[in-house]
Amino acid sequence: MNEVIDMLMVEDNRRLCQVFQDYFTDRDEFNVVGVAHDGEKGLNMIRENSIDVLILDLILPHIDGIGVMERLDAAELKDDLTVIVVSAFMKENVAARLSQLGVDYYVLKPFSFSDLKKRIKEMVQLNNQQVEKKLAVIDLNDGQQDNDENEINLEKKISEVLHNLGVPAHIKGYLYLKEAIGLVIEEVELLGAVTKKLYPQVAEEFDTTSSRVERAIRHAVDVVWENGNREELEKYFANKHDASGDCPPNSQFIAEIAERMRFEVDQ
């Protein structure tokens, strides 16, 4: 077993990646090779670097987590790699496919980094001993959440809301909506400057332009309004907007979800 464990995180949540880097960089037994915010870049980094442990999100731009694993499997790059998939959701069919592709653990968000560290060391040791393993689904939330872990918990709740509404996770507007709602929950004043402040902040997070953010969110809202879960839409928009009528503007869609979630967070 190598003294230092080389790790890569592929995760679209940049704040979570920063927490990951900050936590493990200070520990001598770990080396953070880097982070990637989309599946395509993650694959390139795996090919170009020696990696012991891959922390992989399921919902990613360009190539999702399952797509990454399928490509690693096809290129025979998985054998010496310990893979931990992280996600806010657990579905049996997804877990079964991940098991077929050689994923070691399916970790539910939010999770404790201290417990994750212990699991990583255990899994690397098992890999080096060539012990046969089956996919394990585990919850590493030990209830001792600091501010960063509370952010991860909020991200999980936003993801659940968008999933329940029926926003397709594979489109860019999903990621931009998730970021925008989180920003508004933290700073409600952004709703008064959607074009001048909110879109630019989202654009900066994803290295794109405000106009692209606006168009992608518009597309996501149109899609969910036409094809989404009507019962869930009624919960958020029945009182202030006819959920069976015209599609609300971006700002109202974001505001209604953020307002409900701010209330729930404060309880």
CATH superfamily of the largest domain: Response regulator
The SS-based structural class is alpha/beta
- Give the mean pLDDT: 82
The percent range for strand residues is 5-15%
Please give the alpha-carbon distance between the first and last residues: 47 Å
Q: Give me the strand/helix succession.
A: EHEHEHEHEHEHHHHHH
CATH class of the largest domain: Alpha Beta
The domain count comes to 2
Largest sheet: 6 strands, parallel
Structure, explained:
By secondary structure, the chain is of the alpha/beta class. The protein has eleven helices and six strands. The chain has two domains: 5-139, Rossmann fold; 147-266, Winged helix-like DNA-binding domain superfamily/Winged helix DNA-binding domain (Arc Repressor Mutant, subunit A, Orthogonal Bundle), CATH 1.10.10. The chain has a six-stranded parallel beta sheet with strand order 2-1-3-4-5-6, sandwiched between helices. Helix 1 links the parallel strand 1 and strand 2 (30-36). It is elongated, with a radius of gyration of 19 Å. The termini are far apart.
